[in-house]
Amino acid sequence: MIKFILTLLIPAVQMTLFTSEPPFKKNQKNFARVKQAYSEKESSVKSIFLKSKVDINSFDLFIRAFKKENLLQNFGIL
Q1: Most buried in the list 10, 19, 32, 63, measured by CB within 10 Å?
Q2: From residue 62, how far is each of 11, 13, 32, 53, 73 by CA, in Å?
C-alpha cells in the first residue's frame, strides 16, 4: 500500500514542485534566513556534489519532514 501511494505521490510532487522551482527559489531568497543559509552553505554543498561527481542541476530532490516524529526523509532522482 505504501509503495502504491509513493508511486503516485512522487511524480505528482515532481510535477508541481520541480517545474516551478526557479520562481520559488528566487522568491525564497528574499527572506533573510534563506539568504544567510545560501551564503553560509552553498559553496560547501556544491563542493560535496563536485567531489561526488554529481551535477548539482541534474537531479530532483524531495525533502519531507515530520515534526512530531522528529523525522526527516529525503528522496532523490538522478
Answers
A1: 10
A2: 11, 8, 23, 20, 8
- Least Cα distance to 63 among 14, 2, 20 occurs for 14
As a whole number of angstroms, the distance between CA 32 and CA 76 comes to: 27
Domain that holds residue 33: 2-77
Asked if 77 and 13 touch (Cβ cutoff 8 Å), the reply is no
Number of domains in the chain: 1
Alpha-carbon torsion, ordered 27, 36, 14, 10, to 10 deg: -140
CA distances from residue 48 to 17, 29, 37, 41, 42 in whole angstroms, order as listed: 24, 22, 16, 11, 10
